[in-house]
């Protein structure tokens, strides 16, 4: 059975709707919580078949309150990439992956939007369009070897590859409204127009669930987890 390590940065954000899809494929996942008492980031990915780096609310990688576990996570992600293991990043996790994979990050304000993502240049039978709930600060600067696989309505990068099996998305493809509400309550710092973001997430909840099926099929194939 495959074992996927999931690094969680807040109490509120977890795999959400993605859990059922992984369990249905008999893929085991284990949450790692470096923010919790006694929690830490492993020094090596030995024993894992891949990493998923989740979002982190208002934490940033170059601005705002910098993610406390950023250094150890970068080292772990780089070690996983060097070992040929898939690393998947969502939100803040995508920024960590981008930096670890040879790209960078730029300052951008904390925001909460639901973007109409267009999937491009991804050969793994992903949905052509999908709503993507984005709750994060900062923006990725993909390196020359990284390929864009999702764009927003204004052409902004919403998804990219980082090596043969790794990829990042600026949003969480399986976010539930309750997760976003918990993020708002967990931190004192919140996006400027939180109510608009929550309303958009509520409107798109069914579409998010419908798009997640083909997305997860593409993700699992891309990461060679089955």
Walk me through this protein's architecture.
With 226 residues, this protein is α/β, with parallel strands linked by helices. The protein has a single domain, classed as Class I glutamine amidotransferase (GATase) domain (Rossmann fold, 3-Layer(aba) Sandwich). The chain contains five helices and eleven strands, in the order βαββαβαβββββββαα. It has helices spanning 18-24, 70-82, 92-100, 177-186, 194-222, and strands at 3-7, 28-32, 51-53, 87-90, 104-106, 111-119, 129-136, 139-141, 148-151, 157-161, 167-169. Helix 2 (70-82) crosses helix 3 (92-100) and helix 4 (177-186) crosses helix 5 (194-222). The longest helix is centred in the last third of the chain and has 29 residues, at 194-222. The protein starts with a strand and ends with a helix.
Which structural traits does this protein have?
226 residues, alpha/beta, Rossmann fold, nine-stranded mixed β-sheet, two-stranded antiparallel sheet, 23% strand
Q: Give the strand content.
A: 15-25%
End-to-end C-alpha gap: 10 Å
Our count of helices gives 5
Sheet having the most strands = 9 strands, mixed
- Largest sheet strand order: 2-1-3-4-11-10-9-6-7
Order of helices and strands: EHEEHEHEEEEEEEHH
What CATH architecture label applies? 3-Layer(aba) Sandwich
Supply the CATH superfamily name: Class I glutamine amidotransferase (GATase) domain
Mean pLDDT: 95
CATH fold assignment? Rossmann fold
The total of beta strands comes to: 11
The secondary structure category is alpha/beta
Number of domains: 1
| CATH class category name | Alpha Beta
Helical residues, percent: 25-40%
Radius of gyration: 16 Å
Shape: globular
- Uncertain runs with pLDDT below 50, 5 residues or more? none
């Amino acid at each position: 059975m495959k074992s996927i390590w999931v690094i969680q940065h807040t109490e509120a954000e977890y795999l959400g709707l993605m859990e059922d899809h992984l369990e249905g494929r008999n893929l085991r996942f284990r949450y790692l919580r470096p923010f919790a008492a006694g929690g830490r980031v492993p020094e090596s990915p030995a024993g894992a078949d891949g990493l998923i780096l989740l979002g982190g609310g208002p934490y940033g990688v170059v601005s705002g309150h910098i993610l406390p576990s950023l250094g150890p996570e970068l080292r772990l992600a780089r070690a996983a990439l060097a070992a040929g293991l898939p690393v998947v990043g969502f939100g803040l996790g995508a920024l960590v992956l981008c930096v670890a994979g040879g790209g960078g990050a730029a300052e951008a304000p904390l925001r909460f939007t639901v973007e109409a993502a267009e999937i491009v240049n991804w050969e793994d039978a992903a949905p052509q369009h999908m709503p993507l709930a984005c709750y994060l600060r900062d923006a990725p600067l993909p390196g020359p070897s990284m390929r864009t696989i999702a764009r927003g309505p204004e052409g902004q990068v919403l998804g990219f590859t980082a090596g043969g099996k790794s990829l990042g998305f600026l949003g969480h493809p399986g976010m539930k409204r309750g997760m976003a509400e918990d993020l708002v309550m967990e931190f004192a710092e919140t996006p400027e127009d939180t109510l608009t973001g929550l309303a958009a997430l509520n409107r798109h909840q069914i579409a998010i669930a419908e798009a997640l099926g083909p997305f997860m099929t593409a993700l699992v194939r891309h990461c060679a987890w089955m």
